[in-house]
């Protein structure tokens, strides 16, 4: 069972507004309206909830059935994990291609800024 004591007040409010099951997802826009925040904040909050282990799926069946839902069965779980895995793989391919291009050609020295420590750590992880 999910431990709601792990959540900040805004996380708890968002989580409690998310319906159970993929048949009735709630849109970012509707969640944002209910908890009086921005759509972008909703996306960030849902990602934090997921990282805390809360099983929240999302549907992209635009426009009628897109939104978030609490995962209620194995099928919903595997659909969500598949979607997240595909997103991760797509980002990995993008990072790899950009890193390769950068190592081959570099950047315009006039436009280049010194990378931050965090950026250097990310680049090391990709190589």
Write the layout of secondary structure elements.
Blueprint: H1 9-17, H2 28-35, H3 39-51, E1 56-61, E2 65-70, H4 74-105, H5 117-126
Antiparallel strand pairs: 1-2
Helix pairs in contact: 1-3, 2-3
Q: Any key phrases for this structure?
A:
127 residues, mainly alpha, two-stranded antiparallel ribbon, 5 helices, 57% helix
Please characterize this protein's 3D structure:
- The structure is a single chain.
- 57% of the residues lie in helices and 9% in strands.
- The protein is mainly alpha-helical and 127 residues long.
- Strand 1 (56-61) and strand 2 (65-70) form a beta hairpin.
- The longest helix has 32 residues, at 74-105.
Question: How many individual helices?
Answer: 5
The total of beta strands comes to 2
Question: Rough shape?
Answer: elongated
What does the average pLDDT come to? 88
Strand order of the largest sheet: 1-2
- Strand content range: 5-15%
The secondary-structure element order is: HHHEEHH
Helix content: 55-70%
